[in-house]
Amino acid sequence: xxxxxxxxxxxxxxNVGEADRLLVVFTDNMGKWxxxxxxxxxxxxxxxxxxxxxxxxxLVFVEGKSGxxxxxxxxxSSTFEGIRSSLTKTTVALHLCEMVDRVTVEHNxxxxxxxxxxxxxxxxxxxxxLLSVKPAFIIKLLAALGFRLESNQCAQCGERLERDAxxxxxxxxxxxxxxCARGAHPLTTNDVKYIRALTSMSLxxxxxxxxxxxxxxxxxxxxxxxxxxxxxxQLKSKALYEAFTPRFERV
Length: 251
Description:
Blueprint: E1 3-16, E2 20-27, E3 32-37, E4 56-62, E5 69-78, H1 81-84, H2 87-103, H3 111-126, H4 133-144, E6 166-169, E7 174-177, E8 185-187, H5 189-200, H6 213-231, H7 238-244
Parallel strand pairs: 3-5
Antiparallel strand pairs: 1-2, 1-4, 2-3, 4-5, 6-7, 6-8
């Protein structure tokens, strides 16, 4: 049996047996793992308060023959209290965690995705401008998965974008124009500028964008379509995220 020390974000959990839990965690250098936390539901468990969803924790676990590890030590590094104290921010964070959960397989190291998710949670923790976080996250998540959305030239033919005939096509891989835009969702030049800003700007600075909410919501729906098209993932948390969208403090 091999012992591993990792930093990990708890994506989700569910109860098993009388006092155990299975934790699905996303680690910094070993990808996604399922770990059994024995006795964690007992009041005096040494794991209590260290392995809750949306906690960044230093873990030690033993790799089991079945592929499920057994947790032996846990020390919380960040509780993301600024997220967990807000129902709205928690809804956003759990939605993004489900995205990562659905596009990753176990035991496959994904340091780029790990860094992206942690950076995004740090942004949610520090700032109240929430609407642009998800579309920026989707663009960067798809790029990390090898599906970079094209926004500087026509995604269909590779020609220069025409200002008077612009559209978005998930199948083509981004913004299209001219004849290629037939049947695509129409875009304005402001839509294109916003998508380019989301693509180029660090998530740590995404809160600086001041964009009309209607534009953000429309763009997010297009990027949701692109995410679904490229990953074939159906997200249980999507409806709850959309229900909370009007409560986002500002954009």
